[in-house]
Amino acid sequence: MDVQTSVMGIDTLVGAAVSQTLIDSDIPLPEGRVAARVLCAGTQLGACEAQAQQDAVRASGSLTLLLLCESPSGEAFGFSAATTYVHSVELPGAAEGMAASAQAQVLECTCTAEAGRLHLSAILELSAQACAPESEPFVTGVSGVDALEVRETPVSSARAVPLGAASVRVREEAAAPAAQRVLLCHGAAQVREVIVEGGAATVEGSLYATLLTASEEGELTQLIQIIPFTAVLDIPAGAAGAWAEAAVEQISAVAADMSFGVVDVEALVRVQVYDLARGEGRALLDAYDARGGIVCEQRTVEQLLCGGAEHKRFVFREGVQIPAELPEACRVIYAAATPAVTGMSAREGRLCVDAMVFVHALYQCDGGQLHAFPYDLPLQLELDAAYTPQARVTLQTLSAQLTGGGRTPELMLTLEARATLYERRPLTAAVRVEPAGTPRAPVGIVIYCAGAGETLWEVGKRFSVPLMRLREWNAALGDGAGADTVLEEGMRLVLPG
Fold it and tell me: What SS3 state is found at 471?
C-alpha cells in the first residue's frame, strides 16, 4: 500500500482574546502654556503592531490626543500630544513565530488640569488573534489496494495578502474667513473606489480634514474640508478582487494672511492594497477495502478563511442633550467623537455592529463663556456583508460637527466601518492510513436495518462492502446514492458477502 501525503497550505486559528489596559500619565504642555481646564479632548489611534509570544500576543502602538485647553486668563489654545502603549494579551497556545494581529480602540479618555498641568487617564481595549500555517501533512491518496473505497473532502484556503503600498501628498486651500491661527487639525482618510486594470490599481479616496481656527478677537470656528485624492500602485496582474485601506500619516494646517481668508492644508495619506490568495485541494477523509483491512486516523483542525473586506460610510443626525447644570447654547463651536465597537450580531443574515460614540461638545452661552460636556451616543450599523462571528470591525470618525443651539444642539456625524471578514471552518481529514490486518467482510448474505442518521458510507465501511455493490443489490437506493446519503431509519439493505 502506497500512501501519498501533502501539507495543504491552510491557516488554523490558534485563538482570539480581548484585554484592556490603562494609560495613566502626565501630558507635557507647550512651552510657556498653563492650562486652567481642558475644554475638549479628541483621540486618534495609530496602527497597532502585534507579535506572537508564548501564550500571549504583544500589542503596541500610539495614542494621539487633540486637546483644547483654556489658560488662566481665559484664552483658548490647542495642541496635540502622543503617548505609546505596550500590552500583552493572554492567549493560550500562541507561540513565537506565529502570525498575530491586534486592533485597539479607546473605551474611555479623561484629561484633567491639575495645578496648571495635564493628566491623562485612558482605557484601551485590545483584541488579538494568533494563527499558524498548518505544517502537518494530510493524506491525499492511497494506491496499491484492490477494491479500495475512498471518501474525500475538499480543502480550501483564503488569506488576505498585501499587494502594494504608496504614500500620497494631499494639498488644498480651505476657505476660513478671519482665521488668524489654527488651534487643532486632524484628518481621516476614506477609500471610495479601487479600479484594477492589468498590473495597476487606482485608488480613489477622500481626506476629511477637521480644523478649529481662532480669529484675531479669539472667536473659535470649526471647519471641515473634504479633499479628494488618487493613488496609483503597481500590483501583480489578476487581482480582480482587490480592496484598499487608507490612513493619515501626517496632517498640518496653517492660516494664511487674513486678507486671503484661507487656510493651507497639507497631509500625507498612506494607501495599502490587498487581495485574496485562494487555494483549492482535496484530502482523504476515510477509506476501506473489500477485506476491511484498512485503518484511517483522522484529525480535526479549525481553519481560518478570509472572505475579503467591507467598507461602508454612515451619516447620522442626532440631538445632543446639554446637562441640566449647564446653560443653553447660544453658539455651538466644536465636536470630537470617538467611536468604539461594543458588539456584533446578525440581522437577516447581515453583519450588524453595535457601537458607542463618545462625544466631547464645545459651545458658547449667551454671556460668551465657553462650556464643554461629554455625551455618549449608542448606534447600530448594518453592513452589506454576511454575518460571521470572526469578523474584525474597526470604526473611525470621518467628521463630527454641531449645529443649532438651545438645550439640544444637533450632532452631524460621519463614520466609516471597516470589516475584514473571516470564517472559522472545521476541517477533518486523514493523517495516517495503514493496514489493519484483520478481514471483516461478511460471509454469505446479510440483511441489515439502517439506524437513525446512518449514511451509506457508514454501512459500507462497517461491512466492508463497496458502495457500487450496495447500489447493485439495493435498487431502492437509486444510482444517485453517494457516500453521504442519509438512509431512512429501519431501511432494509441486502449486503452481499
Answer: helix
pLDDT score of 145 more than 90: no
d(CA 487, CA 286): 19
Residue 74 lies in a domain: no
Which secondary-structure segment (H or E) carries 136? none
- pTM tops 0.85, yes or no: yes
Tell me the pLDDT band of 199, cut-offs 50, 70 and 90. confident
* Residues 146 and 246 both lie in one domain: yes
Per-residue pLDDT, 440: 58
Residue 457 is part of a domain; what is its CATH number? Answer: 3.10.350.10
Q: Which three cell numbers stand for residue 433?
A: 492510513
Residue type, 8: M
CA distances from 202 to 230, 234, 309 (A): 7, 9, 17
How many whole angstroms separate alpha carbon 89 and alpha carbon 15?
11
Please check whether residues 412 and 325 belong to one and the same domain: yes
Residues 356 and 479 in one domain: no
Residue 191 to residue 194: CA distance in whole angstroms: 8
pLDDT tens-digit profile of 450-493?
Answer: 999 999 999 998 888 889 889 999 998 988 888 889 999 999 99
Q: Any idea of the CA torsion for 7, 11, 17, 18, to the nearest 10 degrees?
A: 160
Q: Which helix H or strand E contains 191, and what residues bound it?
A: strand 181-197
- Whether 428 and 471 share a structural domain: no
CA distance 15 to 134: 14
pLDDT tens digit sequence for 203-231: 999 999 999 999 988 899 999 999 999 99
Total number of domains in the chain = 2
Whether residue 408 sits in one domain with residue 486: no
Is residue 280 domain-resident?
yes
Q: Is residue 338 part of a domain?
A: yes
Q: What is the mean pLDDT of residues 304-320?
A: 94
DSSP-based three-state secondary structure for 467: helix
CA-based nearest residue to 294, from 446, 428, 441, 486: 441
Question: In percent, how much of the chain has pLDDT > 90?
Answer: 75
Report the chain's C-alpha Rg in angstroms: 31
Provide the sign of the torsion angle of the four alpha carbons 468, 469, 470, 471, taken in this order. positive
Average pLDDT on 287-294 reads 80
Supply the DSSP string of 315-353, one letter for each residue: EEEEE-PPPTTSPPBSEEEEEEEEEEEEEEEEETTEEEE
Write out the residue range of the structural domain in which residue 432 sits: 1-12+140-439
Element housing 462 (H / E): helix 456-463
